[in-house]
Amino acid sequence: MGRGTAELVDLLVLLGMGAVVPLGLALIDEPGLARVRRLWPLAAVPGALSLWLPRGPLATGTAACYALGTIAVAAHAPLRLARTRSLARSLAPAEIAVLTALAMPSVAGLALVAERAGYQLFGFDLDILALTVPHFHYAGFTAALVAGLVCRAVPGRPAARWAALSVPTGTLLVLGGYFVGNWAELVGAAVLTAGMWLVGLLTWRDLRPRAEERSGVPRFTGTPVLLGVSAAVLAVTMLLALWWALGEASGIPHPTLGWMAATHGVGNALGFALCSLLAWRRLALAPVPPMPPIPQETLR
């Protein structure tokens, strides 16, 4: 990975650490997460510093501070699951997506610590570890969270439930593909792309018109544009992801990592993640409460 690409990747990671994760955490109504969000700079600032330090103990230590912050977020996934007393409720597609979102930043945090230490975790090249960090901020955390938000916003649509299931599934398959091989990663990319295209379609067809109807309210002004941009960007960026994964698996010509960072990476970070999270912050549909338990009388 060239120096220019590495610097661009670092900038995307900075955006993820400093803006995307705290914006996303604000959309999840989970006890304790508000405190984590208030204290998030204690993790994000050292994490950002680690990107600009040379590899070694100091960079590893500052990266570990960020990893601890991501672990604090991930710890709320089992806590949230434990509070959901019904297995059927906890396995609802929207809830699966939110639980996945809570867990994914910790993968990025672990990869960051290993890369800053110069340690080839599980035998992965340091460039792969460096790219894993932004991937699990955007394709992991943000994509799963937005899929869950969309599913809860249009609960009657089967496509919304499929999106909320396929985005986490695709993300985990891509992660598994790191260990299994390029063809498995291609399957994950295909599943993730299908899920994100469904998210984009539902955002464009269902949520954007709803926001347009309320655009006269000051806090909704500009929200339809943000939703429209986030949906349109996904159509292109996920096609690039699929092309790259297919090329890696089959050997056909495909974009370089530098080109992918400048197109797929920047598009997903700015066009999808930032625009969609800003839009959801303005919508009355957020926050996302835990799924309530099924009334006891319905279990009899």
UniProtKB/TrEMBL annotation:
<feature type="transmembrane region" description="Helical">
    <location>
        <begin position="186"/>
        <end position="204"/>
    </location>
</feature>
<feature type="transmembrane region" description="Helical">
    <location>
        <begin position="162"/>
        <end position="180"/>
    </location>
</feature>
<feature type="transmembrane region" description="Helical">
    <location>
        <begin position="6"/>
        <end position="27"/>
    </location>
</feature>
<keyword id="KW-0472">Membrane</keyword>
<protein>
    <submittedName>
        <fullName>YndJ family protein</fullName>
    </submittedName>
</protein>
<feature type="transmembrane region" description="Helical">
    <location>
        <begin position="91"/>
        <end position="114"/>
    </location>
</feature>
<feature type="transmembrane region" description="Helical">
    <location>
        <begin position="258"/>
        <end position="280"/>
    </location>
</feature>
<keyword id="KW-0812">Transmembrane</keyword>
<feature type="transmembrane region" description="Helical">
    <location>
        <begin position="134"/>
        <end position="155"/>
    </location>
</feature>
<keyword id="KW-1133">Transmembrane helix</keyword>
<dbReference type="Pfam" id="PF14158">
    <property type="entry name" value="YndJ"/>
</dbReference>
<dbReference type="InterPro" id="IPR025450">
    <property type="entry name" value="YndJ-like"/>
</dbReference>
<feature type="transmembrane region" description="Helical">
    <location>
        <begin position="61"/>
        <end position="79"/>
    </location>
</feature>
<feature type="transmembrane region" description="Helical">
    <location>
        <begin position="225"/>
        <end position="246"/>
    </location>
</feature>
